[in-house]
Automatic annotation (TrEMBL):
InterPro entries cross-referenced by the UniProt entry: GH3 (IPR004993), GH3_C (IPR055378), GH3_M (IPR055377)
Any one GO CC term of the record: cytoplasm
Span of domain GH3 middle: 297-362
Residues of the GH3 C-terminal domain: 389-494
Protein name: GH3 auxin-responsive promoter
Lineage: Bacteria, Pseudomonadati, Bacteroidota, Flavobacteriia, Flavobacteriales
Coiled coil ranges: 429-456
Keywords from the named record: Coiled coil
4Fe-4S as UniProt keyword: no
Organism encoding this protein: Maribacter orientalis
Gene Ontology molecular-function annotations: acid-amino acid ligase activity
Amino acid sequence: MNIIGNFIKGVINVTDKITGDDNPIEEQKEVLKKLLEYAKDTSFGKVYEFESILENEDIQTPFKLNVPYFDYNEINDNWWYKLHEDQTDVTWPGSPDYFALSSGTTGKTSKRIPVTDEMIDAIRQAGIKQVLALSNFDLPADFFETGILMLGSSTDLIENDDHLEGEISGISASNIPSWFSGYYKPGKEIAKIEDWDERVAKIAEKAPNWDIGALSGIPSWIELMLKEVIKKHNLNNIHDIWPNLQVYTSGGVAFGPYEKSFNALMGKPVTVIDTYLASEGFIAFQSRPETDAMKLVTGNGIYFEFVPFNPDYILEDGSLSQEAPSLTLSEVEKGQNYVLIISTVSGAWRYLIGDTVEFTDVERAEIKITGRTKFFLNTVGSQLSVNKLDDALQDIMETFDMEIPEYTLCAKKYEDGFYHTWYLGTTSKQDSKEVAKKLDESLKAANKNYKVARTKALKGVKVFMVDPDVFYSWNDRNKKKGGQVKMERVMKEEKFAEWEDFVEKKS
């Protein structure tokens, strides 16, 4: 009898019932009030008159009227750079002990995003909320006695003057609570290994010693790790070595494109739970099995705003026009696409995180990530977001029974006009012209703007199929193997030329 597991499951069930239903709209008002109160005496708070904003009964309206939108470059160039000059109380009281390194999807120099003690606590509290939500998934008691393998970036953080730097997954893992350490795998020593291949090799070596019940990490890197474990121990599937594996917590990118190849590594179905942990904070997690949408963490250190997604509001560099209107959680509508804006306990204010979301349930504050502002494909009026591209890819995988865990594309200009040029990561030998034809048909059926564009400047679709390892090598070249990497789904022509040159050299 699983005494410990039954006890833990019972505590989770009781705690979840005690906490009851929350009120996301009221929680958001309270979060904004606390943010402004904490930061009113900072340099930022004084410039943007937080104290005056707090004198209003409705603080949400004057807040958005007083404070402009910021992307990373704007807030870093005007404010956060001061943190590296030993200034304190800049955009948040004191100075941060950590900076999250995030190169996003560009491969350029890493962003350095402040991570305060309050943010670490907020991430921890959001993680606890997610654990409590497991009571909704009807998992057996023995699940709560197994280990969770978290595959993120190295926890061996970089010392830089008076703070530490690393990816947010590494920072989070280095601050796991003591009560969780017994469940956490691969353990602190292996997690510190900087070289991703070396770390995975050590995980594969130790795999038989662990009883893993849950996996957590970016889908592409989780897949590669599982393949290494299967290969080293000559297994048919991962359940041969981890028979109690029941949950996979995905995050960072949409799981859809990886589902088919992921399932091929399993011996039996597992429960997939989506999470949304960004360098700027723990944004959302899937809280119930009836949907794959994620519940915003509305009462825990992050205030959300939503800008209706309109190409006219998005500038050429992917930043946001100051004329773009923002909505509060009480004003959003189901099924609309929004640019996500956040203000946080790390001193990010009206910050463009770069993602677009859609509400599937407004009352529950549940969302799906629909894409990136920089990945919106509108070169010739096709107006395609990443979720539309993912949907078309799902159609391809089902039609031709293919596995396509990675892809990228560009609206590339040829002599006779523009073509959406796709590179699909697959080992399939399917005819690329047939795939291109089906992609074109799927996008026409799903998106009226694409259909119109195909009668004008957009001449058609070209498809090239390459081994998925080429995508992993591309990310490795950009020093982004493992961790929080997000492959560029849509590239500009200049970057795409680099990609095509890279593919040719790998052929």
